[in-house]
Automatic annotation (TrEMBL):
Belongs to the metallo-dependent hydrolases superfamily. DHOase family. Class I DHOase subfamily. GO terms for cellular component: cytoplasm. This is Dihydroorotase. One of its GO terms (biological process) is purine nucleobase catabolic process. Keywords: Hydrolase, Metal-binding, Pyrimidine biosynthesis. Residues 46-390 form the Amidohydrolase-related domain. Catalyzes the reversible cyclization of carbamoyl aspartate to dihydroorotate. It comes from the Bacteria.
Length: 493
């Protein structure tokens, strides 16, 4: 049992005492961190757990980069309690039966499962491991993510929440398919109509990698010319955004745009929202913190897709957060080995990892920069992405109202005598063992003002590909709580 004294509720500012009755089966803690007893949490904030609608865990098929185990550990240590796993696994997560002999097939077939989705839903059983975060799965838009033919609804309909639930085991119920995407590539013109029809029929959001280019490796501009690397024009993003806005208008399908990076795309999305169209979007911390100038300092650790854009686009991204055009933050956590990243601008794979420093980097840029409040950043990282996946973030204030015990001074008519600890506390007490549905309570404990330096060597991810190593940031997750159980701690008593 862990008791956090004097912790502040993120959106009411009420200071409470919180009892976390037990450990999650996947609990892990950093060296010397508290997992039970009393912790003085004065100055810390209790918020709904973060959710990341965009992670790549490379499992099955490329587990030398990341695995479900290391990816989920990275998420828990970054304050996340739920993630949406993108479908560019090997084989791809398209609902089709895995064929013996195709790359990555043995990991799925040897474990006794017929599809990648079956395998990932039962990952804990297959590997006898308890993963310390929740995860949903995102099914491919096209078969094999090849862009030639849309996936078949009949192959994956049963994985959706609410479909034949009475026949499902606990793992199937816990890890449903809640979105459609070909992330890594935009939906192709050849499959566009069929994919929108799939989204319409299923009712799931289409999560679009809204960017397509046939040539180029970094943003087109003075930096690409200086490096002598072929550039990617800014309208490679806008063309897909505009195309899909038109399809959203025509079909009513909810389109969620991933990792939006340019001023002109934000303008288009702003207009679509003003029109009342069902579109949402995310951006990632690197588009807030870095421009293409970062290529000069960090080399391929700043190579991603879409590419880091101009300083004006970076400023437009911050502005789109501040004015509400951006609905949520995602990391696009994309693990690669440093050997792969050392192949030069043309050959190195795109992407960086993000789960373990996203909050600190975003907090430094957005909250320290005076653009949004602490509470708004928490909404962008928890409430909004949970909603995209069809879930409701934990309502901490409602739990306090419904289930906390009155403060001792209220109960006994005593006079308040300033903040106390232990038996003298005059805070209301929320004991998570007493709530109606403890399994549904997912929380993060944040030190919103903590200054710390990003050290990739201490990441729980297998990967180290980040440009943020050595960055001084503020804001750090100290513990995650899943289903009322402590799943991760770097709290100190
Ligand atoms: Zn993408
Ligand atoms: Zn991605």
């Amino acid at each position: 049992m862990l008791t956090l004294r004097n912790i502040k509720v993120w959106n009411t500012d009420e200071v409470i005492d919180l009892v976390v009755p037990s450990a999650h089966a996947g609990l892990f803690a950093e060296d010397g961190a508290a997992t039970d007893g009393d912790v003085d949490a004065t100055g810390l904030t209790l918020a709904p757990g973060f959710a990341d609608p965009h992670v790549h865990y490379r499992d099955p098929g490329q587990t030398y980069k990341e695995s479900m185990v290391s990816g989920c550990a990275a998420a828990a240590s970054g304050g996340y309690t739920n993630v949406l796993v993108m479908p560019n696994t090997v084989p791809a997560m398209d609902g089709e039966p895995v064929r013996a002999g195709e790359p990555g097939a043995s990991e799925v077939l040897d474990a006794g499962y017929g599809t990648v989705i079956d395998y990932l839903q039962h990952y804990g059983e297959a590997h006898d491991v308890a993963l310390p975060v929740r995860y949903d799965l995102c099914v491919c838009a096209s078969k094999g993510r090849a862009g030639r033919e849309a996936t078949e609804f009949a192959r994956w309909r049963r994985y959706m929440p609410g479909v034949d639930d009475e026949t499902k085991d606990a793992a199937q119920l816990a890890h449903p398919v809640t979105a459609i995407s070909d992330d890594g590539s935009a939906v192709t013109p050849a499959t566009l109509d069929d994919v929108f029809a799939l989204a319409k029929e299923s009712g799931l959001p289409l999560i679009e990698h809204c960017e397509h280019h046939d040539a180029g490796a970094v943003n087109e501009g003075s930096v690409s010319r200086r490096l002598g690397v072929p550039g990617i024009p800014e309208d490679t993003e806008l063309r897909v955004v505009e195309r899909d806005i038109a399809k959203a208008r025509e079909t009513g399908v909810h389109v969620h745009f991933q990792h939006v990076s340019t001023a002109i795309s934000f303008d288009a999305i702003r207009r679509a929202k003003a029109e009342g169209l069902p579109v949402t979007c995310e951006t990632a911390p690197h588009y807030l913190a870095l421009s293409d100038e970062a290529l000069l300092e960090y080399g391929t650790l700043a190579k991603m897709n879409p590419p880091l854009r101009s300083e004006a686009d970076r400023e437009a991204t911050v502005a789109a957060i501040a004015d509400g055009t951006v609905d949520m933050l995602a990391t696009d956590h994309a693990p690669h080995t440093l050997e792969e990243k050392e192949r030069g601008f043309l050959e190195a794979p795109n992407g960086i990892i993000g789960l373990e420093c996203a909050y600190g980097v975003a907090h430094r840029v957005l909250v320290d920069g005076g653009h949004i409040s602490d509470a708004r950043l928490i909404e962008l990282m928890s409430v909004a992405p949970e909603r995209l996946m069809g879930h409701e973030a934990t309502d901490v204030a409602a739990l306090v109202e419904a289930f906390s015990e009155p403060a001792p001074n209220e109960a006994h008519g005593g006079e308040p005598d300033g903040p106390g600890t232990g038996a003298e506390s005059r805070n209301r007490l929320l004991d998570l063992s007493r709530v109606d549905d403890p399994d549904a309570v997912d929380l993060v404990v944040l030190a919103t003002d903590a200054a710390w330096t990003v050290d990739p060597e201490r990441f729980h991810s297998k990967a180290r590909n980040t440009p943020f190593g050595g960055w001084d940031v503020t804001g750090r997750p100290l513990a995650t709580i899943i289903g009322s159980g402590l799943a991760f701690s770097r709290l100190h008593a």
